[in-house]
Design brief:
Layout lengths: L1 H21 L10 E2 L11 H4 L9 E6 L2 E2 L3 E4 L2 E3 L1 H13 L2 E6 L5 H6 L5 E2 L7 H6 L1 E16 L15 E5 L3 H7 L7 E5 L2 H9 L5 E5 H10 L3 E3 L5 E9 L5 H14 L2 H9 L3
Parallel strand pairs: 2-6, 2-7, 9-10, 9-11
Antiparallel strand pairs: 1-6, 3-4, 4-5, 7-13, 8-11, 8-12, 8-13
Helix pairs in contact: 3-9, 3-10
This protein binds arginine.
Arginine binds next to loops.
Length: 276
């Protein structure tokens, strides 16, 4: 109970500061804090034998934006997904209790920089520009930016058509960064707090296309009738966890991640959420 309250307080603090810095999204659900409690399955691992008991090192706060299925999303009241489970497995290995703080995507790096969160994990793409602000761990998976359009619409049928289109993106994402480049060519970019809001605008005909990561794109297309993903991929990316510059967490997380990769655990988690 105490833990839950402190998690909620942490979330409230996070949100307050996010308001000051970048706006808090205005929605109740976006500032909600969830604590994941997935059972440790690593009890018999050799690697955990000489690491502390789960929770012995205290809590690690993960900043995320939990509207990004299959990486992080709400199932009932709980944040689940690939990132949530990999983070849980990392914390198990390192002896921390994971607390997930949900916020706007473009507040995550600030939260990590300021120490309000210990790390950020949000299907976050490694970019040179972000590396100026935070450190990244080793990567844990690949992704592709894709274009979602309305079925039967011929406004955008290939990447080049984006130059003259209106494009919806989630604010502060790499999708946003790529299409911002096209604005000078005549593209009109609409930025939304959530990917889902961009997709809704597409369904309503308010934008011609949405640029977003491929797996969330698949989830959105499955959930919304009349949408499709263009075959031509837009940009290849790699996801990693971000930590404060110079933090010793980078090495710790990398060590845990390395073990989880070699044990096949990372693949197992990914395959659980992404069916081949
Ligand atoms: N991969 C993209 C980026 O790093 C989008 C990530 C959005 N993630 C989220 N949890 N909403 O910019």
């Amino acid at each position: 109970m105490k833990k839950i309250i402190s998690a909620i307080l942490a979330g409230a603090v996070m949100c307050t500061s996010a308001v000051a810095l970048a706006g808090c999204g205005g929605s109740k659900t976006e500032s909600k804090t969830e604590s994941t409690t997935a059972a440790s399955s690593a009890a018999s691992d050799k690697a955990t034998a000489d690491t502390p008991e789960k929770g012995a090192n205290g809590e690690l706060h993960m900043a995320t934006n939990a509207f990004f299925e299959p990486y992080e999303y709400y199932e009932n009241e709980k944040i689940v997904g690939i990132d949530a489970e990999i983070a849980e497995a990392i914390c198990d290995k390192l002896g921390y209790t994971l607390v997930i703080d949900d916020m706007d995507f473009d507040s995550i790096i600030t939260a990590v920089q300021s120490g309000k969160a210990d790390f950020g994990m949000a299907g976050m793409t490694v970019t040179e520009e972000r590396k100026q602000a935070i450190d990244f761990t080793d990567t844990y998976t690949n992704a592709i930016q894709v274009i979602i359009v309305k079925e039967g619409s011929d406004k955008v049928t290939k990447i080049d058509d984006l130059n003259t289109a209106s494009i919806g993106v989630q604010m502060g994402t790499t999708g946003d960064i790529y299409v911002t480049d096209l604005e000078k060519d005549g593209a009109a970019v609409e930025r939304f707090n959530k990917g889902a809001d961009a997709v809704l605008a597409l369904s309503q005909g308010k934008v011609d296309a949405v640029v977003i990561d491929n797996e969330p794109a698949k989830a959105f297309v499955a959930q919304n009738e009349g949408l499709k993903i263009l075959e031509e991929p837009f940009e290849n990316e790699e996801y990693a966890i971000c930590v404060a510059k110079g933090s010793d967490l980078t090495a710790k997380i990398n060590a845990a991640l390395k073990e989880l990769k070699s044990e096949g655990k990372v693949d197992e988690i990914i395959n659980k959420y992404i069916k081949a």
